[in-house]
Amino acid sequence: MAEHIVKFDIASEAVSVPTGALITEAAEKAGVEINQPCGGQGRCGRCAILVTDGDANIRRRSTLRLSANDVKSGYALACQSVIEGDVEITIPPQEKIERRLTTDRTVGKVAVPAGYDPQKGQSIRRVKVKLSPPSMDDQTDDWSRLQRALRKETGITAFQTSLDLMREMGTILRKNDWQATATVNTKSWDCPDCPAELLDLQPGHFADDEPLWGVSIDIGTTTVSVWLVNLLSGEVKTQVAEYNQQISRGEDVISRIIVAGKEGGSEKMRDLVVGTINDLLIRATKRVKTSPNAIFKATISGNSTMMHLLLGVPASSIRLSPFVTAVNHIPTLKATDLGLMMNPRAIVDCLPGVASYVGADISAGVLSSGMANSEDVVLFLDVGTNGETVLGSKDWLVTCACSAGPAFEGSGVLNGMRATKGAIEEVWINDETFEPTFRVIGASKPKGMCGSGLISLLAEMFLTGVVDKGGKVNTKNATERTRDGEHGAEYVIVWGAETESGEDIVITNVDIDNLLRAKAAIYAGFAVLAENVGIPLEMAEQVLIGGSFGKYINVEKAIEIGLLPDLPWERFQFLGNTSVQGAYLALIDYEARNRIKEIAANMTYVELSADNKFYDAFMSAMFLPHTDMSLFPSVAKMMEEK
Questions:
Q1: What is the CATH architecture assignment of 213-350?
Q2: Model confidence pLDDT, tens digit, residues 382-400
Q3: Which CATH number fits domain 361-405+517-641: 3.30.460, 3.40.50, 3.30.300, 3.30.420?
Q4: I need a surface site. Which of 11, 197, 447, 550 has the fewest CB within 10 A?
Q5: 119, exposed or middle or buried, with CB in 10 Å at 0-12, 13-18, 19+?
Q6: Entry pTM
Q7: What's the CATH class of domain 3-90?
């Protein structure tokens, strides 16, 4: 097969690839990063590149997300274009994530649970020991001598340790006259009868106030969050967060599963998320002037796909009928098993999930939200790429998940983007002139629209008559902002003269259809769940919304489009990242960790794909706000008063 030379403008050297190689494959070989939010399926249009010279077949699916003028000018989707000769390629600026993350520096202080006692709830203990030195009268070996001292200080009868620490033990004990500080894991949730484990041994005695470090980690599809905790006090000393580097290979879990299933894909996806976590661990420990090596325990939460990709466990079965995971309850691991930048012998506890699309993030969220202790019926929602729902109380819990798609995260929308600098996050439309006003993240010209902005825009368009109940743009309104565009009828939010790109920012009928599908899936999910257990939604005394996206949702606008149930506003409560909160509770409290295990084991999972009622509910919710206006009395009243 013929070889061709590919030169990227931002690469130092050209590379050679065979005929038929994708441009993305050539880019990877050249060390050039090209964002592929849809996992290389040609759906998002974010991997557009410019072929400046040479031969590449740029017709394959490129016109789905590029205009005819773009294609004529040489633009192509890198994931869909193949090399057919020597070629030179220019990489446009990639979308840069600049939004401040609410879990990094700007969050409020986390309250330590009342009555926290590390001697009772915490499995990691620091123990100061003083050993009698060996002599001709006492030739007990070093390990037995150390165990004897540990038994005396802790009351624990049996211990084990690793070979690498055993190799260092004698030197450490002799370094400071047989005085040492041991770090011990006293018990494990998956083996309560196993011996305690010696994790670390240092010469001399540590000060009583020397912190003992642990971390709680949430691996979100979009964001990875890390809380660094002093296990002696239970205090969260710093919180850091960053966008999950896997975004560059897919914004939704299905795209990432597809990428992971390709040759070398699993290792790549694992490296990306481990790299994200390690960067955060370095950042967090620098803030408190310690070393990642001083971290001895981690609890990790995340959805089922994120957990599988972290472990390098095949995730393909998650997206294929009958939709089962490889593992829901992951055995206790060590930091070295995963390549995490902590003490290599640190305990890594991955929290348990329920099913393919209801993972540890939901189990942890049910605990941290207090739902599992509620006397009243509570509806818990995690709105994101997947819409997970839990309904119940302390006596019973049922759960389901639906694939909402990444529309509310800006993907699948022509001018959609993540909540970064330049994203429109709130919109208001004058009902007489149809002129919009809007708020943009950061001090910059608008670049596009993020999820909260799309919800706000859709509600305003519906209430002002820019779109009808079916979400179709009315081009007969007396405004030049509604028009027929290249992708069908559209509404112009910002004229090109006011945008950073110089091009109009619009929303099209196709975009609106994607948003309606996302909101319909979420609404239908909790509606069917309530119907299956015979409880009307209005019986929910609280609607708890977890996830970082939930913090930006305007409840009024979300109800107006039919994303959330029409209940009194005071029943809604936004909890932020309940997943990392649950991981924190599991980190500091052994009983809380066991409670999460019980929650995951006792939650009843409803598979919506096998429920015909879901399809009917979904189709009914494909309108604004719904085909049955009696379900949305406040919106109906608003429409009558207009």
A1: 2-Layer Sandwich (3.30)
A2: 877 678 999 999 999 999 9
A3: 3.30.420
A4: 11
A5: exposed
A6: 0.87
A7: alpha beta
